[in-house]
Design a protein that fits this description.
Layout: E1 2-5, H1 13-25, E2 32-35, H2 42-50, E3 54-56, H3 59-63, E4 69-72, H4 79-87, E5 91-94, H5 98-112, E6 116-120, H6 126-132, E7 139-142, H7 145-150, E8 158-163, H8 169-181, E9 185-188, H9 194-209, E10 212-216, H10 222-234, E11 237-241, E12 257-262, H11 268-283
Parallel strand pairs: 1-12, 2-3, 2-4, 4-5, 6-7, 6-8, 8-9, 10-11, 10-12
Bound molecules: FE3-S4 cluster (F3S).
């Protein structure tokens, strides 16, 4: 069995930086928290828990903390969360990915200049919630081309459109096309991060070349789900797994080539484990 592992599989630079930041703080700070799980990976989060790093999920939970340090993960947070951390006298260590920070700056400035903001992405994803929390006026989150079709504001509305960093690039192009046809005065900024774009393009190519495709990542990881979406369009046997235990005992007989890719929160060792497992299968 031939195995092709994507070069752009696993931790992106933003996630690497965020995880390293938390580990660097351990031992230096006594009450250490991350705002939301640092990454969508249960084994990393469990390891941090053992090292006494707690997770705070909401402004209400944050309000309970009297002293300590809050690490902001790569997804970023809204302006109000920063303000809350400051007003409670807590220390803030900011590991927001610079690509996400850039979106905060764009929507902050553009909406302060009177533009209506459109974010292409999943409205309930923490990154999108954070972006929305940096706007100073009207903001809409559009998740699908169908929603874009239905979108309507007055013809003289000036719009600035950005996207969630991990949005599906092809879907973004389709959605943007719909907005262009509506004739609005619209400033489109493609804020899909290059790591995501490269990962998706490579996954799409590999999925077209193999008989089975394995996509590794957390069940809640939106970028992994998108990889799965892309791969399953090209490859009928596409498996979405979190760890090697989720793989089937056997691959269908006609499978001779297997591709492997992984979302941005998947540590290298899990990718290697999967690779080893597939290799042992092919030795049978
Ligand atoms: Fe940043 Fe892109 Fe990763 S936005 S966190 S480098 S997927």
């Amino acid at each position: 069995m031939k195995i092709i592992v994507a070069e752009h599989a696993g931790f992106c630079f933003g996630v690497t930086k965020a995880v390293e930041t938390v580990y660097e703080q351990i031992g230096k700070k006594s009450n250490l928290y991350t705002y939301g799980p640092i990454i969508h990976n249960e084994s990393v989060v469990a390891d941090l828990e053992r090292k006494n790093v707690k997770v705070v999920n909401t402004p209400q939970e944050l309000a309970e903390i009297r002293n300590g340090t809050i690490v902001i993960r790569s997804h970023g947070v809204s302006r109000s969360v920063y303000n809350q951390i400051k007003s409670q006298g807590l220390e803030c260590v900011d590991a927001t990915c610079p690509f996400v920070k850039r979106i905060h700056t764009i929507v902050d400035e553009e909406s302060a200049n009177g533009k209506t903001i459109i974010v292409i992405g999943n409205p309930t994803h923490p990154e999108v919630e954070g972006i929305v929390g940096w706007t100073n006026g009207p903001v809409f989150v559009i998740e699908t081309p169908e929603e874009a079709q239905k979108f309507k504001v007055s013809a003289d509305t000036e719009i600035c459109l950005v996207s969630q960093t991990t949005y599906n690039y092809n879907k973004f192009k389709d959605t943007v096309e719909i907005f262009k046809q509506k004739g609005y005065n619209i400033n489109i900024v493609n804020t899909i991060c290059s790591a995501t774009e490269e990962r998706q393009t490579e996954a799409d190519r590999i999925a077209g070349e193999v008989d089975a495709m394995i996509v590794i990542g957390g069940a809640h990881s939106s970028n992994t789900r998108k990889l799965y979406e892309i791969c399953s369009q090209k490859c009928a046997y596409t498996y979405f797994i979190q760890t090697v235990d989720d793989l089937p005992g056997e691959f269908p007989q006609e499978v001779k080539t297997v591709g492997i890719t992984a979302g941005a929160s998947t540590p290298k060792n899990i990718i290697e484990e999967v690779q080893t497992y597939v290799r042992t299968k092919s030795d049978i």
